[in-house]
Amino acid sequence: MMMRMKVMLVLHLMILPLTLAQLKVGFYSASCPQAESIVKAAVQKRFNTDKSITAALLRMHFHDCFVRGCDASILIDSKGQNQSEKVAGPNLTVRGYELIDEAKKTLESVCPSKVSCADIITLATRDAVGLSGGPSYAVPTGRRDGQVSNVNEVNLPGPSLPVSQAFQTFRNKGMTMDDMVTLLGAHTVGVAHCSFFSGRISGSGDPTMDPALVAKLKGICGAANSSNPDPTAFLDQGTSFTVDNEFFRQIRLKRGVMKIDQELANDRSSKKFVSRFASNSALFRTRFAQAMVKMGNIEILTGTAGEIRQNCRVFNPK
């Protein structure tokens, strides 16, 4: 049994580098030289009128990679009895699909069936981060698109989980505690609907939240009406549209809106990372770029696996 386990481990270690080796920076330099500039132009156009697109793309990328890996399965529309990931509860508020469609349409007109939807998500997210003041970083490309999207496979960590339970999901995907804290730093540009944190502001409020923030959030959520039944609040009360380390400073001041965010600053296993990022902007920028690249490598399809979709919303005809 021990020998069998050793053989399996050796095989795994031999296969893993080969898989990742098929991703490389500039993968489309020969097959579609304009690929990255086309995606960036689409992101820039949207960003000019909607700074919140950065948070939307970060969320889309995360929700895609943490189900079947980074294979663009989140983009598939449901059809008939086949309910896709897009209609799962956690994904009902994911947005930005039309931006991916726009980039894909242009790419198909320039270099048909060359650039995957999975790579478009990855590149668009990177470009949006840079436009929002975050780090500029190279991302390897060469992903292929998945051919399965099932609503029942969506099992993402919720906003009220304790750090230890949330970390189980990240660890299952090969991520460390440092990676998790770093990636949750994406909340520096995010918003949350009141329904996600209402329990923390009911009554006298959560004692782990700054009373002034409790009062502010009660005002926001109390303004709900028929046209806006579930208002949103910024997760970073300081620099709400900038990818920086302000989020970590905020949660150290008990100004985390969602429970998981505040728990990062309180939990023994994660608070040291929060402290480091709160006091070192350069460190956060470096680690955020590294963690985004690492997340983008989760369970990827390369080579002849999967497909290159012609339309990001539907699988290619058989």
UniProtKB/TrEMBL annotation:
It catalyses: 2 a phenolic donor + H2O2 = 2 a phenolic radical donor + 2 H2O. Its EC number is 1.11.1.7. Its main location: secreted. Keywords: Calcium, Disulfide bond, Heme, Hydrogen peroxide, Iron, Metal-binding, Oxidoreductase, Peroxidase, Secreted, Signal. Its cofactor is heme b; Ca(2+). The keyword rRNA-binding does not apply. Residues 1-21 form the signal peptide. InterPro entries: Haem_peroxidase, Haem_peroxidase_sf, Peroxidase_pln, Peroxidases_AS, Peroxidases_heam-ligand_BS, Secretory_peroxidase. The keyword Membrane does not apply. Binds 1 heme b (iron(II)-protoporphyrin IX) group per subunit. It is found in: Secreted. Residues 22-316 form the Plant heme peroxidase family profile domain. Pfam families: peroxidase. Belongs to the peroxidase family. Ascorbate peroxidase subfamily. Belongs to the peroxidase family. Classical plant (class III) peroxidase subfamily. Removal of H(2)O(2), oxidation of toxic reductants, biosynthesis and degradation of lignin, suberization, auxin catabolism, response to environmental stresses such as wounding, pathogen attack and oxidative stress. These functions might be dependent on each isozyme/isoform in each plant tissue. This is Peroxidase.
